[in-house]
Each structure stands twice: as C-alpha cells, then as structure tokens.
Protein 1
Amino acid sequence: MTFATLQRIKDVTDRNVLNLQEAKAAGKHVVGEYCIYSPMELAIAAGAIPVSLCGTKNDSIPAAEEILPRTLCPLIKSSFGFALQDSCPYLSAADVIVADTTCDGKKKMFELLAQKKPLFLLQLPQIQNTDAVTYWREQYAKLWQFYEQQFNTRITEDDLRNAIHLMNRFRSALKRVFDTSCSKPAPLTGMEIMECGFRLSFMSDKEHAIQLLNDLATELEAAPASQEKKRAPRILLTGVPTGLGSHKVIELLEKSGASVVCIDNCTAYKKTTLIIDEHKDPLTALAERYLDTPCAVMSQNPHRYTVLQELAQRFSVDGIVDLTWQGCQTYEVESYSVKNFVRETLHLPFLHIVTDYSPADTEQLNVRIEAFLEMLA
C-alpha cells in the first residue's frame, strides 16, 4: 500500500541538505552528533540545529581503513571515512561536533576527528545509578558552557525547557507512527519504518517534522488492513543502529517474506522513549532520561531485557533478530545473554546476525534468514 504522507516526507527530506545550507547562510549554527546520548535539546536551546553524523554507507570505509584498523566496526570506519573524504554534507556543515565515549574504538577515532573540527567529548559513565546521573549532569553542564562559548550566546533555563518540550512532541509523534505497527498486519514495512525515522532525524524544522509525522500517523490509523501481509511472520529487530546504506538485513528479512514490525535500536524505536520530565530541573531530567538508555555499552544493562519483553508483547512478534556489526564487541558479547532471555523467558525463536555494510555475505545471510523464517512458519 502506498501512503501519500510517506511520499511527502521523502519529497521534503530530499531537501534536507539544501535547507541546512540555507539555515547556515542565515546565521544558524549546526551541531553534529554521533550518539543518542548527546542531548539534542541542549543544541536546540543554544539556537543550533543538531544533525546525526553516524556513517551508514559502505563507500567511505576504504578511505578510513588507510588509517583505522580493518577490524573496527563499519559504523566507526564509515563515519571517519566521511571526514577524510569530506563527503558528508552534514559533517561539512557542522560547526562543532559532540561525541560520546561509548566504546574504545569510537573514543580513539574521536581523537583523530578532533583535529578536523572543534569537538566536545562527553565522558559517558557506563553504569546507571544515582552517582552516574550526578556525574552525567555535570557533563551536560560542561556541554552547556561549551555551546555558549562556541556560539557566543547565552542559554537560559527557559530555552532548555522549550527545547525539551519541542523534542518531546517530536518523539511522541514519531512513536505514534511506529506504534501503528502494533496492528495486525502492520501498515508499514520495516524499510519504511527505518527510512521514516532516518530521514526525519535530519530535518532542521522540527515543527514541520512533527506535522508530517502526525499526518502520517492519522493516515496509517485509518488505512484498511493489507491482505497480503496477514500471514507474514512478525519480526522485532534489535541490536546496532541501522540507516539508509546499512539496511541490508531489514531488506533481506522482508524480501524473504517477514514483516519487520519494530526496530529496537537508537536510530528507530529506542529514541522515541526519550521523553523528558518537563516538571523537573531540566538538566537533571535530561541526565536521568538519557543515561537510562538501554545500550550494550552499559554494564549491567538490565533495561534492554525489560524493553525487549515489552516490545515483543506489544507488537505481537513471532521472532527476534539481533543484529551486530562486525567488530562491535559490546553488542556481540551481550547477544549471548539476549539469546538466552529471548528463548527461555520470552519463549520466542532467536537469530543472531553478525555482518558489515558490504553486500559480500548477502547470499549467506539470505540462506540463514530463509531457514529462520521457515522455522517460524
């Protein structure tokens, strides 16, 4: 089924780079961010436009491998390759970069990247307790000061509260779209879910993005059920981030007959949960909510299992696929515990896929995916 608002979103977001360039020409600053732990709200409160810089394309990796180890994950290599080639318009437009010490590979890559642009490195604690929240709030306070110095501006508490309210509305609208896939059958394909979240994350006009998302949700909620999808096995994809260019596994799952109804990663459903308490001290509320993100870099990471159980039940899934990029040690090691939880607690079939951005293993993956889906049938 074709949805008119999806085409509108594609048409509008095809102009994202041009809109960003026009905003810069009008005096706007741009903040490039590499991780979900970097608070978009602080950048917006500083009057800047936050954009994601995580590399999702394979074609920038060869340049990165001239400097970085080939064994690093493709996300790190792709991101750094864009910087070396100056081939990412969002990185080129960024006045400053905000990064996080989520893994050893990233933090060492950021040392090299800091030679190219002003970079603020958030020293992410990898535990989730009261002491960590206090520390994380201090990191955000330093980021606040960094923006004020870099942009020669003053951020007020009201500025931050307004930014929190804006992003709460954006994430609520995005969640409304994603939650339509709780229906049987899901109105959106997994590729549409991924592309919608990915494209809108680059929109500089968040009010327009909110309008588009709510229009799409209304259209999806009113759409008649697709007869073709009724028997497709419903899959929850969890694990590492995906985007346009790193969507291989989503595409293969759906070409093999699956319906990817939920993508539990930080480029899709995970970011819809970052609803910030608007009644607390805003910096404390940001620190509490962002640090609570269930990522494999956290030790322990109990929230991931709670979230998986909730999503599996809410989206009525038939199986769970865990995606890991080659070289991503945190997600690959954690997959063992995720597998046991899915099979023994959720009593659902589980498939772990380790791959990269290249098409080299497509046929091998296709065989494994088809066998997994046949087992579900």
Note: The two ends are 24 Å apart (CA to CA).
Protein 2
Amino acid sequence: MTVAQSEKQLSRIVLKGFKSIAECDLKLSRLNILIGANGAGKSNFLGFFRMVQQLLDENLQVFVSRQGGPDALLYFGRKTTEQLEFQLYFGNNGYFATLEPTQDNRLMFAAESFWWNMSGKREIGKGHFETKASRGTKTRIDDYILPTMQQWRVYHFHDTSDSAYIKQAHRINDNTYLRPDARNLAAFLYLLRENYQKSYQQIVKTIRLVAPFFGDFLLRPSPQNKEFIELEWFEKGQDIPFKAHLLSDGTLRFICLATVFLQPEELQPETILVDEPELGLHPYAIKILASLIKTAAKQVIVSTQSVELLNEFHAADVIVFDRFQGKSLLRRLDEEELEEWLEDYSLGELWKKNLLGGRPSR
C-alpha cells in the first residue's frame, strides 16, 4: 500500500458533547499530529477512541461506570449536555451513534446506525445499553467498517516503573496484537521473530540506532513455566541476558514505539493512535520516531508536547487544540497561511512564539 490514505481509515469525525469537546467536525488525513496546552483536550480526544473500543466490545456500561458515570463523560454533565453524539466517516461510509444518560447513571443508545455511500442508512436500533453493531445489518457495510474500528487502540507507554506490566512475565500466547501499554511485548516480539523475521530484524536494527549498546532480544518460554515469557535482552557483544528493568525508561519506551510502527503491515490497525510518544526520549530518538511515523503505511494520530517532534512535520499534518471558556476548539493548520513564516522559522519555533495557538491562555 502507498502512503495515500486508505478508505478504511477515518476520514472525518463529528463529535458532540464528549468531556471538554462540546462540538467538533474534523477532517483527518493520513498524518495527524495533535498539539495544544495541558488541559486543552488532546487526551479527551484520544479518550474518545478508547470509549469506542469499549463500546464495540460491549463493555460500554463498565467503561461509563469506571469513568465516574455519564456526567463525567458529557460536556459539563447532563444539565448542560443532554446527549453524546458522534459520527465516524470512512470515505463515503460511516457509523453514527447518539447516547443519552439515564437516571440510573448509564448511557443508553438513543440511536445507532450505519451509513454507506453517504445516502443509504441502516438503523440498528434504539433504547439498548450495549451496541447491536456486531449483530450485523445484512448489508455488508458493517463487515467493512467494524473490523477497522475494533482494531483501534491508544498506545501510551508511560508506565516503566519496576512494577509495570511490561517488566513482568506474561502468557506467551497473548500475541494477537500489541496491547496499549505493551504489557505483552515479549510475547508479541516472540511471534514476530518466529513468523515475521523481516519485521523483527527491522525492529532490532532501529533500536540499535537509538541504543547502540543493544544486541538483541532473548525471547524464550520461561524455564519454570513454558506458558509464560518475560522480556530479556543481550548487550552487544555479550552473552549474559538482562531483564527489562535494566533498560532505561527511554530505551524501553522506544522499543515499544519501534514495535508499534514496524510490526508487519497486516498486523497493524488501520489507524495507529499514540499519546505523547516523546516521553523520556533523546532528541535523536525523537527524530528517528518521526521518520517511523512519516513512513508508516497506516493512518497515524499522535498527541505530543514535543517541539522537536513537531519540527519534523508539515503544517498540514498538525491539528491544534485550544481551550476557550471551557470548550476544546480543534482546527487543522493552513500551510498557505504560514508560508511566509515558515521561510524563516520552524513549526516548533512558531509554536513557541504562540503563532500557531495551542498555548496556555487566560
């Protein structure tokens, strides 16, 4: 596949009444770099994708409860926002839903439907508490859209503490996909080494660009229990294996990111979402990360606070989040409007000068 955007990738999102996002109508391209001040709404935007995955797994009410009830999800609660509405477009096809709060603190589907060719509408139902999307519409449109949405995962590799799941032993057969916190990294890398050698070697070589001391992974079933595996690695030129806790936080996070972007294309979700991937990374590692993002075959949505990462992209790739009177305002940068500025300054410099927006404001 070329770098052109696939029709299975999200082309437009209309979202109303979700957390700080009172309303947005945003077109998405193949590359989408989200910037903004702390609290501007970037995490809320990515959190919506987490909600959709839980919704499609028929865990919506569990998700709502864990978030603190409907009032924690609706823009300033139900007294201000009566419904949470979203429309997801994939080219000319789409999935629409409207959710309403109930007196027993659940979210109920007031409407749920699929659209195709922007003209045909297939109502799934209303008054239900878990999605009926997986039951099928007999139109094949759900077969086209559903698998794409079900693959969405927001990767965030912030927890690299000693107790982090990624540093613990886990089941070796937990390898269908890389989990959002990479807790099954060893099992997934084991799968790649055994079945996708080219991708595995590319991951190892890329890690060495950032961590020249890195030799290779030691991926093996645990000697104590063959059903489990733990992340181990060799230093270059050595044959004594080390555990994951002897990797620096930045190195471990970069390993996760390299695995996300260099896994075989057939295993990648159509849309890759990553929250603040620059955490703990050296500027050179950020530059390598940017090249992975830019050359990805799939759609990428990345939230960042990094000037170094922003500098690696074009203005047209950037979506700015501002917050005004409690509302998150989203807009894509216009490259033509910035053309003269970009002759003398980088995007990051313009951001720091507060010429792009996305900065703290009173």
Note: Residues 159-268 form one domain.
Protein 3
Amino acid sequence: MKRADFRYREPLRVRWAEVDLQKIVFNGHYLMYVDTAVAGYWRALAMPYHDTMERLQGDLYVRKATLEYEGSARYDERLEVGLRCDRIGNSSMVFAAGVFRGEQRLVHGELVYVFADPRTQTSRPVPPELRAWLQAYEAGAPMVGVELGDWTAQQADAMRLRHAVFAQEQGIAAELMSDAADAGAVHARALNRAGLAVGSGRLVPLPGGGGKIGRMAVDAGLRGAGVGGALLQALVQAGRERGLVHLELHAQATAEGFYRRAGWVPEGPVFEEAGVPHQAMRLRLG
C-alpha cells in the first residue's frame, strides 16, 4: 500500500494538542485523521453527505476500525491520509486507509461500514447508485459534469444555490440574487453523479466583443473539490465558442487566488460591491 495507490489523499498538519508525552502523535488521533479523510472523500465525490444519505434513505455506520502502526508523526509535520474504497459487499463497504509522511507510510488500516436504515439501524443492501458512484470515483472518472443552458432551464437550481451562498452564508440582500442580465446570459450548472446541481454561474455578453462571468456559487461543503474550476472552465469555453475576445469578472477578495491560478489578471484597486470586497479581473481569449 503506497501513497500513489490512493486517488484521494487528505493533507493535514500535526497540531500541538495531538502530541503526547512521548513527543509523538497519540495513537488514538490517527483514527481521527482517517475520519477526517472520510469527510474529504465524500467532498471529492461531489456528494453532500447528509443530502446524499437522505436521498438514498439510509446511512453509513462503522462496524469495525483497525489500525496498524509502523512509524510516528511529530508536531507540525505535514501528513497525507489516503482513503480508498476497496470492496463493496451486499450491505457493507470496506475502505483502506494509509497515513503518509512524504512517501513513508506511518499507519495503515481498514474501516468497515454498513449501510443501514437510520431509524432502526438494521442493515440494508448498498443502493446500486451508491455502488456505481464509488466504483466510478476509484476508476478515475470525473464526478462532476457541467451543463450549459438558458435562464428558463436553470433558474430554479441557480436561485437555490445563490440563496444558500450569497443570502444565507454571506448576508447579501435577497433582492440582489438576480437581475435583468439573467434573461440573456449563458448559464452553467455543475451536476454531480446523482443529478444534483452543486454549483452555478453565468456568462453575460458585453458590447465590443467581451463578456462578464458572475454569480458563481458553489455548495459550501464541496468547495475545494474542483466544482468551481469545472464551472469556470465551461464558461470560459462558452465565451471562446461565441467569438468573444476577452472576459471580465468581479472576484470576491477571498476568491482572487482561485481566479489567478486560472490565468485571470487583476485590474485596478479592490472595491466594495454588495458590502463585500471585490477585485476586478480580466482574461484574454485567443
């Protein structure tokens, strides 16, 4: 079991509180590390855990957890926790785990989950769709697809996501969730393998061969899983296909780094929009 054997790896750093009197990570914390990786694994699947389990009318319960210790991690070291779905039975699933410092494996183990009715906690067969999602991820398949469409087709999903991100999370006034530009915009929604929209955005054509990307909203629990990147890539490609020569956007200051990594260039000073600091950015096409 090597680091490269895991498609999903959760990065973490050893905290002071996790080190014992021997100046190494206390053994019980490694199980917490693995459990943290489990949450990240669901994020990588683009599956909001609670919503997914509710849809499947079940939940996952740990039946057995085993760890074997081969080395010790110390305060402030950078680690990676690999997690992989190894086997799926009738009602159980077996996940392999490994904790690595660089390429050195420090701990490895196994988690056995049982899919069960949450009311009675009695086991149920693993739903075929859940089995398919896990197998697709482990096979290296993309977990999110982006669909382009008009406002009529995507309004419901876009408004649900905008309300959750902008109104509920950031406290932006509800009347700013939509405007007249929505009607003529190219809209994009990111769909996970369950068909749930987990991100949305739009491209508004501008005079002079330009366009403006905006209203980018991604489910809070799935940020960092590539959803925003897939949306942005699809909208930029839509601009290219329409012959636009440049694109602009107003990035929230906290997201500027995300756009920089995608090749966008800041223009002008930071300004406030809807009570939130923003940075104007531009991308030349072609």
Note: Residues 260 and 266 are 8 Å apart (CA to CA).
